[in-house]
Design brief:
protease; 694 residues
């Protein structure tokens, strides 16, 4: 690495490293950056951080202003709506000046049916204080937070580096004592047996794939723990949970396209798992216990999924309950004693369908806004006639309702406060449609101030993701107001590869159809210009993780369409990563991207769109890449290599790399640190858009 001057960026050294596949030999001159134990690697990342700080020093005042705007609009001392479970109301509260949530409960008072208010918390018991646990650490995250069925024990796990490897502990909620039981190296999730004598958890293999389910006996050392299930197929992840009925422990094994589920009666935790249905390539299913049956949500001969059931005593054939309806994607099913609630999506919007027990009659909940997101929120109680839902739109802050499933009445329990005089009527949301090169219509969700011009003069930010059938549905953001109030139009491109328009939408944006994701996004950018929302010199694109791949691809595909690009933890070196099965999670990704080791066609196709492989001497827009040293999902070296090659091949561009040296895939963990990170991105965006002085 050459030492930069005050105004020049660092230059990464080049070293010969060749790869050969399918007769194609490629030189990767920055492959050495994968070694984070190499002092030269750390020195390069730190030099890039220093350059980024110098290059954005003029924005420090704006960053502080935006951070304070987010802070002033947020009710820092706040309380989630308490959820009832057994004899307690459970909730999380935050306190002004503290980074993390405080998990609490209070006893249910005799005759009490409504959740207690923030001002009325007699008998509060603090179960876990994230601030106390995080003291002295730059990073903190919980992997599981799981109260036993009897309410006496809490299983929780902590990560202090961001690598998503947790240490599991058990707390006696009657005495406050943390037991000597301690299990390092666990993954997400856990599940208690009915008598709270056993705790189930998962661990990962060398590729960081959750592959084992263990049973821990409370009060015994971890060395006595028993492997309950092990998944040898490297394409599959395992997980464990407890049904809402608390009758069954569920062990699921899933690849990107295939599922297999086993259950153990919660009152006999040492029993052998019972298989619901053997895995069948390409068939995905999940189960939910409901009385005498298991509800089975599946895609066998049902692209957008159907709902069936099988016997809970002797699982076998599936009996149809809701047939497949093309265009209505059934996403999940939640069972209660007398009702079933199905989460679904149709025409690019989420929805909830309610069925009575033993009946095929149903109704769909209705909502007034043209764009919104809705879903179930918590609902730990099985024997209930009401459910809690979350609702938001691009102008309506996050809202919590309790819905009576019989009368269909809705009670608003809380709407996220937005301080400082926020008026939803000052903003409007819109649905536009772009036309992709193959004629497919692609939805775009837009929000702007009512006075935003429609003559192409407004600055705009276009966000996209487009992978894993993950949908970016319309949502509310306090931080986004700092853009909107400076005249910026905010848009979400619902590109293929996501799940916004059903399973086919996903299928048409993966494997050998992945390019549709990128061309859809460019079409959305062009539609915003055509409809007068903005112009190319006033448009910034933003995406993260697999959406960062999208950012890198459109930088090569249509650099003239954007003034700037924000790529967060970006998957910009996909071919080299997917070619290396020793890297974390590579094998599990082959069903999403293809296997370029075995297939010359996949190799050539991935090489044709890989951002790193296709850096050229182009006039790129300004680019900000952000990553984390301890990220185990998209390794830091991908954006580091990308920026280094951009500088070498297209030196006239303005490229910045910012690396969090003590965080993981999600970036900084504390809320104030996260706000500072967002303020950094928004200030840079406004600078690109010429709005830094507003």
């Amino acid at each position: 690495m050459t030492n930069p001057t005050a105004d020049s960026p660092p230059t990464a050294q080049q070293a010969t490293h060749e790869r050969t596949h399918h007769g194609d030999t490629v030189t990767d001159e920055y492959a050495w950056l994968i070694d984070k134990e190499n002092p030269q690697t750390v020195a390069y990342l730190e030099a890039e951080n220093a350059f980024t700080e110098r290059a954005t020093a003029h924005l420090s005042g704006l960053r502080d202003t935006i951070f304070n705007e987010i802070k002033r609009r947020t009710q820092e001392t706040d309380l989630s709506v308490p959820s009832r479970k057994g004899g307690y109301w459970y909730y999380t509260r935050t306190e002004e000046g503290k980074q993390y949530g405080i998990h609490c409960r209070v006893p249910v008072e005799p005759g009490q049916t409504d959740p207690p208010s923030a001002a009325d918390q007699p008998g509060e018991q603090v179960l876990l204080d994230g601030n106390a646990l995080a003291e002295g650490s730059d990073f903190f995250a919980l992997g599981t937070f799981d109260v036993s069925v009897d309410g006496n024990w809490l299983a929780y796990s902590t990560d202090f580096s961001g690598d998503e490897r947790f240490t599991l502990r058990i707390k006696d909620l009657r005495t406050g004592e943390v037991l000597a039981d301690e299990v390092p190296g666990t993954s997400y999730g856990s599940a208690w047996s009915a008598d709270a004598g056993a705790l189930f958890y998962t661990t990962v293999d060398e590729a960081w794939r959750p592959h084992r389910v263990w049973r821990h006996t409370v009060g015994r050392p971890a060395t006595d723990d028993v492997i309950v299930f092990e998944e040898p197929d490297e394409r599959f992840w395992v997980g464990v949970g407890l049904t809402r009925s608390e009758k069954f422990l569920v062990i699921d094994a899933q690849s990107k396209i295939t599922s297999e589920v086993r259950v153990i009666p919660a009152n006999t935790p040492e029993a052998e798992p019972t298989l619901i249905a053997p895995r069948e390539h390409g068939v995905e299913y999940s189960i939910e216990h409901h009385g005498h049956r298991f509800l089975v949500l599946h895609n066998k001969d049902a692209e957008d999924f159907a709902l069936a059931y099988t016997s809970a005593d002797n699982p076998g054939d599936w009996v149809e309950l809701i047939p497949h309806e093309p265009g209505t994607r059934l996403e999940s099913v939640d069972a209660f004693v007398r009702h079933i609630v199905i989460s679904q999506r149709r025409d690019g919007l989420t929805g909830l369908r309610v069925m009575g027990d033993g009946s095929t009659d149903f109704y769909d909940m209705e909502f007034p806004e043209p764009l919104y997101s809705v879903g179930l929120a918590g609902n730990p109680e099985y024997d209930t006639a009401s459910v809690r839902i979350s609702y938001a739109s691009m102008v309506t802050p996050d809202s919590v309702y309790d819905v009576d499933l019989v009368t269909r009445s809705m009670v608003l329990r809380k709407r996220k406060p937005v301080l400082g005089g926020y008026e939803p009527g000052d903003y409007e949301q819109f649905r536009e449609w772009a036309t992709a090169p193959d004629g497919t219509r692609v939805p775009i969700s837009i929000v702007a101030r009512k006075d935003a011009p429609r003559n192409g003069s407004a600055p705009a930010l276009l966000y996209g993701y487009g992978s894993y059938e993950h949908s970016i549905d319309p949502y509310f953001s306090i931080a986004r107001l700092s853009l909107l109030d400076r005249g910026v139009v905010y848009a979400i491109a619902h590109v293929r590869g996501g799940g916004e328009m059903g399973r086919r939408w996903y299928e048409e944006g993966k494997l050998l159809a992945k390019r549709n994701t990128f061309t859809d996004f460019v079409a959305c950018a062009q539609a915003l210009v055509r409809e007068g929302w903005t112009s190319p010199e006033r448009l910034v694109a933003r995406g993260g993780s697999a959406g960062g791949l999208l950012m890198g691809a459109i930088a090569n595909l249509a650099p003239e369409a954007f003034a700037g690009i924000v790529a967060e933890v970006p998957f910009v070196d996909p071919l080299n990563t997917i070619l290396d099965p020793s890297l974390p999670l590579t094998v599990t990704e082959w069903e999403e991207w293809g296997n370029p080791i075995e297939s010359a066609d996949v190799y050539a196709y991935m090489k044709s769109y890989s951002p790193y492989e296709n850096v050229a001497k182009l006039q790129y827009p300004r680019i900000l890449a952000m990553t984390s040293l301890n990220d185990t999902r998209v390794l830091y070296h991908e954006p580091a290599k990308w920026i280094a090659r951009l500088r070498a091949v297209a030196p006239d561009g303005a490229y910045l790399l910012k690396t969090e040296m003590g965080a993981g895939h999600a970036g900084p963990s504390g809320r104030y640190d996260a706000w500072k990170e967002e303020a950094f991105v928004l200030a840079w965006t406004l600078d690109v858009l010429g709005r830094a002085g507003r």
